[in-house]
Specification:
By secondary structure, the chain is α+β, with helices and mostly antiparallel strands. It is 31% helix and 22% strand. The strands form three sheets. A five-stranded mixed beta sheet has the order 5-4-3-6-7. It has a four-stranded antiparallel beta sheet with strand order 8-9-11-10.
């Protein structure tokens, strides 16, 4: 099953390091970051889970819940969490799904036979409060994820959901944004963007970032 942007994130019920998870119920009205790992006790994943734990406050500011997945069982996860906490100087504060039966992996197409026919790939999904998939990224097993980029994308999604803007290349929170080309009415533009804008081209209009 291939998951595309705008699809409803498949719901599931699965065991985790924090007990049984009913995914949509667990998400509630929050944004979600669901990310998979090839296996427990692997070096790159250990750094990723540790870094995610350190982002707790950053995620909370954005109303985001994190949840990880590995095909190993709960007892393995619990032992691995001890290692993560020790080596990364943190405390894992989010659940790790124990997908031993591959149920969630199959729902989210996380096993790519040409990469490895048993282990999940390093995929990540950003899911909004309406349970829609808003971002998908898949990395090779050898490359750790850039979680600063994940936060940047979430900032962009939340901003552009609220205002008729898009974010340009390498945008960071607070930078200028692009007025969407479909917005033509000058009175509406003045109302929405009281700080004005500059037209580099008729289709490329930059304005100070609206308040979030």
């Amino acid at each position: 099953m291939s998951i595309r942007l705008g699809d409803i994130a498949p719901d599931f019920e699965q065991d985790s390091s924090e007990g049984r998870i009913r995914f949509h119920e667990w998400l509630g009205d929050s944004w979600g970051v669901l990310f998979s790992h090839p296996a427990d006790f692997t070096p790159v994943c250990t750094t990723e889970l540790g870094f995610t734990a350190k982002l707790k406050d950053q995620f909370a500011q954005r109303n985001v819940k994190a949840i990880a997945l590995s095909v190993d069982p709960v007892d393995s996860h619990i032992k691995w969490i001890d290692d993560i906490n020790e080596t990364q100087s943190t405390a894992v504060n989010f659940p790790i799904l124990a997908d031993a039966d591959r149920k969630v992996s199959e729902l989210y197409d996380l096993i790519h036979p040409n990469a490895n026919d048993t282990l999940t790939v390093r995929s990540l999904f950003v899911i909004d409060p309406n349970k829609k998939v808003r971002l998908t990224i898949t990395y090779p097993a050898s490359t750790g994820r850039n979680f600063n980029e994940i936060l940047r994308v979430i900032d962009s999604l939340q901003l552009t959901d609220e205002h008729k803007v898009a974010t340009p290349a390498n945008w960071q929170d607070g930078d200028e944004v692009v007025i969407v080309p479909s917005l033509k009415d000058e009175e509406e533009i003045k109302r929405r963007f009281p700080k004005g804008y500059r037209a580099v081209k008729p289709y490329l209009r930059l304005t100070p970032q609206p308040n979030r």
